[in-house]
Design brief:
Blueprint: H1 2-8, H2 14-34, H3 43-50, H4 52-70, H5 78-91, H6 98-101, H7 109-128, H8 137-160, H9 162-168, H10 173-176, H11 179-199, H12 207-220, H13 224-227, H14 233-260
């Protein structure tokens, strides 16, 4: 997803891709460690508890890579520090300290915040580090398309985690509204993502990019009911893969063009 942002706006920064890769491992490893205990009930949490030593090692190693790659951006370090803070704040409600426990009570916190973090890390940060002009309507449309797609997908994950979040006292949009309203918000988010993707091609010069960005939310329109009956691979690979689908299609297309021109 970060690669797609760099590619669409003509930026080459392999260091950033390594930074994002290591940061993702470090952040999710840290989040997993905060959510494990001997009384874990889900298969994922049981696996995390059993392999907690490996998780810790992965956090340390990936953390070292994050620090090393961050030095490349010392002249524009604020966006990086903001990313670190955002990643920490996502896991903070799992800490048993008063300032962080309060965050669990924010009704829309987890859903909107996670969507904002994903959008910031994969769509805003790579452009900010390159001092791109955010008054450019193409950038704004692209960021909005990314946010509403990720937000809709986060709603499905919140549906899956509803019972676990209730036990932890974490409020999400799915615990606040009825299923009827949740579905309305979900579909409206996907429609908004589609409209913003269409808007990217209003000048008639970005049809290919627009088509790739439309496919994932179109597929998403078919997934709400299925998500209520699915577990495991549907979420860990299906929905995560849906977020990356536009980038995957772009890579396949680029490699196909290289192959056919040989």
């Amino acid at each position: 997803m970060a690669w797609q942002t760099l590619y669409l706006f003509g930026i080459v920064d392999y260091n950033f891709l390594l930074f994002i890769f290591a940061s993702t491992i470090c952040s999710y490893g840290f989040h997993a460690l905060l959510n494990i205990s001997e009384s874990s009930t889900t298969d994922r949490e049981k696996w995390n508890y059993k392999n907690r030593k490996h998780l810790f090692i992965s956090i340390v190693l990936s953390g070292m890579v994050v620090v090393m790659t961050s030095f490349h951006y010392l002249d524009n370090i604020f966006p990086i520090l903001l990313a670190f803070f955002a990643a920490f704040l996502y896991s903070a409600p799992n800490l048993s300290f008063k300032p962080f426990i309060w965050l669990r009570r924010v009704a829309f916190g987890k859903t909107i915040y996670l969507a904002l973090v994903w959008t910031y890390i994969t769509a805003i940060l790579p452009l900010w580090l390159q001092n791109q002009n955010f008054n450019d309507h193409q950038i704004l449309l692209y960021v909005a398309n990314r946010f509403f797609l990720v937000y809709a997908i986060c709603i499905l994950f919140d549906n899956r985690d509803l019972q676990a979040d209730k036990i932890k006292g974490v409020k999400t949009i799915t615990s606040f509204f009825s299923n009827k309203y949740i579905q309305a918000i979900y579909y409206c988010s996907l429609i908004a993502s589609i409209l913003f993707a269409i808007g990217i091609n209003l000048d008639g010069k970005h049809l290919e990019e627009s088509i790739y960005l439309i496919i994932a939310p179109l597929i998403g329109l078919l997934l709400y009911q299925k998500s209520t009956q699915s577990h495991g691979l549907f979420y860990d690979f299906g929905l995560d893969g849906l977020m990356m689908l536009a980038a995957i299609l772009q890579i396949i297309h680029l490699n196909w063009l290289k192959f056919t021109t040989l």
